[in-house]
Write a structure and sequence with these properties.
With 200 residues, the chain is an alpha+beta fold. It contains eight helices and eight strands; from the N terminus they run αβααββαββααβββαα. The protein folds into two domains: 97 residues, L1 transposable element, RRM domain (Alpha-Beta Plaits), CATH 3.30.70.1820; 59 residues, Rec A Protein, domain 2, CATH 3.30.250. The protein is globular. Pfam families: Tnp_22_dsRBD (PF17490), Transposase_22 (PF02994).
Length: 200
Amino acid sequence: MENNEAEKKREMKAKEHNLQNREISDSLKRNNIRIIGVPEEEEREIGLEGLWEQIIAEKLPNLGKDTDIKIQKAQRTPITFNKNQPSTRHIIVKFTKYSGKERIMKAAREKKSLTYNGRQIRFAADLSTETWQARKEWQDTFSVLNQKNMQPRILSPARLSFKIEGEIKSFPDKQKLKESVTTKPALREILRGTLSGEKR
């Protein structure tokens, strides 16, 4: 029993430590946008900052004139080799202010689809791998709630929020949602299969 208790404490501390690391990593990346899909040869003549200015001038011209939106730096992600998923390295753009990043992201979301030189590109928040994984784990649940018009949202960094019985509920992880579902039969029926891992 003592060994079990010690093991549980170690697991809890490891979980807390991982959560703290994720929060630190995400806070360091708070002002960053990740641009996905721009080939590396595009920046050879004009550099990454010049490429960023070109993309904004073409795709979001109203924001290109905004003197309050300034970037601190732009860089490519480090080289990682994955033979199963060859892709160009992402561009990370760091803004001097969080508000500048948010305005760019809002404008990009409103555009819905962005292309540069005939290629599809995408803007995304620059988050830690752990946060992206946590968000990905909500995918099935989010899809089911969306089909039922329950207005699901992924809140920063990886909380699921949705509307039920006129109230907005928010959950940090699937365990908390599972605990809540036990007291709500209608919600349990809607999410049957998405929380236990079984197929619907």
